[in-house]
TrEMBL record:
HTH tetR-type domain segment(s): 28-88
GO molecular function, one term: DNA-binding transcription factor activity
Name of this protein: TetR family transcriptional regulator
One Pfam entry name: TetR_N
Matching Gene3D superfamilies: Tetracycline Repressor, domain 2
PROSITE patterns assigned: HTH_TETR_2
Start-end of DNA-binding region: 51-70
Annotated keywords: DNA-binding, Transcription, Transcription regulation
UniProt keyword Flavoprotein present: no
InterPro entries (UniProt xref): Homeodomain-like_sf, HTH-type_TetR-like_transc_reg, HTH_TetR
Length: 215
């Protein structure tokens, strides 16, 4: 908002136009713009200090407009997490380039995720707000499973050739996501880097070998 002097010297407050003067074409565009605004607010204020009022102000709308598309703060934050998921998985796939042993791929994927998820201002949003239950629901949703399945299919391991496809592969992803959640919700102090990878390799590899023969 800005202000101008009136004819008698009074100051008039000028309202910023809704949606900053460019209303969305449809509901999908509105949701996308709300998510983008939420990300900008998180960048500016930090995850724990971002409110729906901040997001509404960023867009030049009232809070009820945001609620129309996201009935709760939790739903908006979960949408932000999903929006960031693809970017995170791109980085994860790049981290796994050159690895062909399935156990090595899984251990590195887990270690990288354990280290990076809490540092990501969007994926770690629920943790910063004390919402591990919301994070857990988002991470074990069908949408998360599908995204992880696509990411693992882009590694240099031929999971189908190893006999992992369909329901078996879904079970493996569920196992990995649940292990990841336990680490993210209750971190092990001082366990990172090579020590973290050695720990995961010692206990995860036998479970993986039970279903996936190592190369």
């Amino acid at each position: 908002m800005g202000s101008v002097a009136g004819p008698l010297g009074h100051t008039r407050v000028m309202k910023r136009p809704a949606w900053n003067g460019a209303p969305p074409r449809d509901g999908e565009e509105a949701k996308a713009r709300i998510i983008d605004a939420a990300m900008r607010c998180i960048d500016r204020h930090g995850p724990g200090k971002t409110s729906l009022s901040d997001v509404a102000g960023e867009l030049g709308v009232i809070r009820q407009t945001v609620y129309r598309y996201f009935p709760s703060t939790e739903e908006l934050f979960i949408a932000v997490g999903y929006a960031a998921l693809n970017s995170f998985l791109e980085r994860l796939v790049a981290q796994l380039v050159g690895r062909r042993d399935p156990a090595d791929v899984i251990v590195e994927a887990m270690a990288y995720s354990i280290e990076q998820v809490p540092q990501d201002p969007y994926l770690g949003l629920f943790l910063d707000l004390g919402r591990p239950d919301a994070f857990s629901r988002g991470a074990t949703s069908v949408r998360a499973f599908d995204a992880c399945r696509v990411a693992f299919s882009r590694t240099e391991v031929d999971w189908d050739e190893l006999g992992l496809s369909g329901e078996e592969f879904t079970e493996l992803l569920e196992f990995l996501l649940r292990v990841l959640l336990s680490f993210v919700n209750d971190p092990l102090p001082g366990r990172s880097g090579d020590d973290l990878r050695a720990f995961l390799r010692r206990w995860l590899t036998p479970a993986i070998q039970a279903s996936v023969p190592t190369a």
